[in-house]
Amino acid sequence: MKRKIFFAAVLSALVPALHAVPASSFRIRDPFILVEGGAYYLYEAQPWSGGPGVWVRTSKDLESWSERSLAMELGEKIPATAVWAPEVHKYDGEYWMFVTLTFKRGTYDVAPDSQGSAGRVSPRGTWVFRSRKPEGPFLPVADGPVPPREWMTLDGTLVVDGGAPYLVFCHEWIQTGDGEMCAARLSPGFASLAEKPKTMFKASKALPGASVVTDGPFFRRSEKSPALHMIWSNMVKDHGYCVLVRTSKSGKLEGPWTADRILYGQNGGHGMIFKALDGRLMLALHQPNSGTAERMKLFELEDDGETLKVAGK
To answer: Which domain holds residue 262?
Structure first.
């Protein structure tokens, strides 16, 4: 009996190791990590080949991850052709997933592109799902995207400003000609916007060499000052895909904002920021930006209350 108990204990200790998955082994774009209950939750989608929804993995050390499980399943009622950039925020005691869904042309009407043609414009927008647990299941709060349906939008994120929840999202460059970063207050339950979106800035105005692309906004309040930091991604000459950083020293979403500068400029981007269990401030992004070599990369950040920088840079 003692021998059976011993072998059972050994097997139990080995099972988690057998299912430990190193981050270097799986392809991922737009990684998002939620820290909750002493664990890390990593949300992922596979925009390159559609997929049934959004998966989640868990970890205790940011190195070994569990096998993935479905946190949000689209089902037949949401026939999306691509699922992009999921992120999960805890707000008012629940978990809210913001995710970009793309549909076949003609699924619903969208406005034409900046040249007046509808040829390149696919229905795409930020949807919101809700769950009582970080692992899901996440269910939709509305039957369509939360930003204007006729707009081609992506990469919605949550930021709380003055005690109120706001959605910040990208209005696609394909439709606008120059990608726009937009913000609007959310209605209770996040099923709609409570006001008309306002344009925060346009992509090409960010810094010399910037393109017309707006991607991946994310906000983090400084622990050293009242400042509100914002990161987002753009294609920049001589750097490729980048993470840019700007700061509202007032701590308000309306700014005024400092000029953008490159936080990470080595063909990697769509970043987010989280505080590790050991207290370090971390940046997560994918790098490189194309091909099957895409992997999650983690970097420690330094926040001096004025801006952010990668530690040691």
So the answer is: 26-310
